Amino acid sequence: MSWLTRISIANRWVTLLIALAIIIGSIFATLKLKTELIPDIELPYAVVFGMHQGYSPEEVMTKISKPAEDEIERVGGLKHIESTSMENTAFVFATFEYGTDMNAAEREIQQRIEANSDLRDLVQSGGELYVGRISFEMIPLVWVTVSSDTGMSGAQLRSVAEDLVDKVSVVEGILREETPFMKPVEIEGGEENVLVIPIADAMNDYGIPVSWLVSTLKAQSEYGSLQDVRDAPLLSNSALRVDDVADVVAPVPTSYTNGAPSVSILWRKDPEANTVDVANAPWSWTSLITSREASMT
User: Using an 8 Å Cβ cutoff, are 111 and 84 in contact?
Assistant: First the structure.
């Protein structure tokens, strides 16, 4: 009989207490485990995004893409690099060997980019540079659609969606940091820009140039209704209304859900947050939606 067995038999209550403590600790640890829909896999990809207004594609290539490539090529573990140079914008995509410490690689790229004199001059002259990584966190965790069966307009639905976003923004675990490639929260749909179509014959008859019509429409930052747009007096001739020289067309919703106009909200979570807790957070605010005659799916 081993010494451990003898001690366990001689001190039965101590043994039971230790076993009970292990069981309770195991249950507690299990309940605290983060539930993830997608494993935390570190993808070996890094990106450099550069922008400078007024640069031609050739200038972007020589002043942004090429210097960035030269710096990235000096980082250990690099497997492949490619870049795209467009007017005003550069996108450099680097692939590293699996197993590369991407946190260290990202820091090194950032340091080399900041130390490069050409790229430093770019930023000082009004350009922008961003270094980041491709990860699963770019995929929205929660996608909520707000719609109405009571005839709410797209603008009203968007207002409801914006209120919901404000409420949920206090939830711990919602992504906060915004990058050129990823926004913490996105609202899609609900834009209702009224379409104003000038009537050529009426414009010519009254001698109204298009610039006067545009100035009239811009004189107010927003309008309460389509009729308000139609009734707006022309700045150049207050005896005439917009409706006299142009057709004002009701806007068409940009998205529908089950045949009704809708607005979508996309949330992303912080990499360290609990997936289930963050995913459940928007549903705790359903009373905000139902109280305003809209529904959430």
Answer: no
Does CATH place domain 45-134 in 3.30.70.1430? yes
Per-residue CA distances from 221 to 24, 190, 210, 241 (Å): 62, 18, 19, 17
Taking the C-alpha atoms of residue 283 and residue 142, their distance in angstroms, rounded to an integer, is 10
Every domain of the chain with CATH number 3.30.70.1320 lies at 138-191+254-296
Residue 64 DSSP code = I
Does the predicted model carry a pTM greater than 0.85?
no
Of 82, 76, 123, 84, nearest in space to 100 by CA: 76
- Residue 280 tokens read as 């459940």
For the cut 70, the answer to whether the pLDDT of residue 114 exceeds it is yes
CB 237 within 8 A of CB 249: no
Where do the CATH 3.30.70.1430 domains begin and end in the chain?
45-134
Q: What is the rounded average pLDDT for all residues in the chain?
A: 78
For 247-256, what is each residue's pLDDT tens digit? 888 776 667 7
The tokens describing 270, both together, are 């912080």
Does the structural domain 138-191+254-296 have CATH classification 3.30.70.1320?
yes
